[in-house]
Amino acid sequence: MLRVEGLSVHYGGIHALKSVSIHVPEEKVVTLVGANGAGKSTLLRAVSGLVPVSGGKIRYAGRDILGIPSHRIAREGIAMSPEGRRVFVNLSVYENLLMGAYCRDDRKEIDRDIEWIFETFPRLLERRDQPAATLSGGEQQMLALGRALMSRPRLLLLDEPSLGLAPLLIREVFRVITKIHQEGTTILLIEQNAMAALHVADYGYVLETGEIVLEGTGKDLLCDERVKKAYLGET
What we know:
By secondary structure, this protein is α/β, with parallel strands linked by helices. 38% of the residues lie in helices and 26% in strands. It has a single domain (2-231), classed as 3-Layer(aba) Sandwich (Rossmann fold), CATH 3.40.50.300.
């Protein structure tokens, strides 16, 4: 589904990504774990066409998408739920979901998908007509996920979906991620909560200061002593 090869990104004099290569197979969950500033969000933004790339290749569904404008990448079937949620605070919950379907014109199917989002996130249904600004952080995260899903993506990019949430809401978010995966969506997940991410991931990469330093199945990385010490709070 997605193959990133030798990807490099510079921000001024900062080398944010240093020849990073990852592979995201179709209908799998792949996670990138690492500390703040490791370059995780930069990689997602590069895949989405939001930051310029200084070297390497990005192939999606067998096609080279490097240099394609972000709005065209979205139309190709890649959607991102960004770090910090970034919902449209002055629009209602329902209007935010409609914005996620801006590439589509199949109104009946759009209505069905909104019903599915409300079934998946009952709290959003309760707040259907409220401005997004009035939602809690967890509810805004649900809305950001729902909005991304409204484009019917083949590849869903999730950037820190559990950031700032209480433990109960974190479990709810990862329950939904598992459900989305089971229904056939390929997911690239960026997370500081390595324990939660590796539990749902088929495969994972550890990113440190812009470089991949470790990779393996989610189960293998959970058992790796280096990962336990650095990211799982175990010694």
